[in-house]
User: What shape does this take?
Amino acid sequence: MHKARNIYLIGPRACGKTSVGRALAERLGLKFVDTDHAFAEAVGMDIASFVEANGWDAFRDEESRTLEREAAPGGRVIGCGGGIVLRAENRAVLAGGLTLYLKTAPEELARRLSADPIASQRPSLTGKSLADEVREVLEERAHLYEGCAHHVVEGGDLDSVAERAYAIVKTFPERF
Assistant: This one.
């Protein structure tokens, strides 16, 4: 019997991976996993504290281990950290499932991040203003998100994104 594939949601911070992922998992009757939450649980501290204590390379190493661990059982909806696409080994894991890129305009990402009280727990990637950082990081990673994605789900309100993601998943012959 072959293992059920995972559904991976990718995109930058605040694109809705967790909200859409929870809604999608519920509709499909699958478990939802957020790699950032799984990471923090595994290391016993939030990402900002881990990065401050250990550096970005150690974070990316542990992030890769987290993705592998959470992907292993199969049959899950997995919301991935925004930088998960930066490493080839992570992109290989994503290729083994159905990967959806939640594409959102930089202005909307910045708006959501500025309204998020948890955003302060996320370390700055560039040291620039929020709007500049969002734009810069998105420019650097957009080709990776698009290259990994089996489908791109354009932004909008999170309920409609979840509906469109569900409609895409239902077009696949394998059971999710």
The chain is about 55% helix and 10% strand. The mean pLDDT is 91.
